[in-house]
Write a structure and sequence with these properties.
It is built from one helix and six strands. By secondary structure, the chain is mainly β. It has a single domain, classed as GroES chaperonin (10 Kd Chaperonin, Protein Cpn10, Chain O). It is globular.
Amino acid sequence: MKVKKVIGRRVLIKPIREEYKGKLIVPEQIKKRPRKGRILKVGQLRDYDLKVGDIVHYDRFTEQIIGEGDTPEILINEGNLIAIENE
């Protein structure tokens, strides 16, 4: 499914999967849930000055999954964003 426009105080994000390195044993459940992503589309936000391409961190289990496959796009409310990364 292709999203034409994001409505309300939400952002459309493409999750970024991180590789776990080292000797730490990480459960599979944790590996499958990324907590950061690149912004694809922005709705009408009030509190943040975000633009397409920004990398953000978000609360786990607060997203609405859109699409299928290994890394589907996700829709997140503005209030569930935690941080914006510097590039």
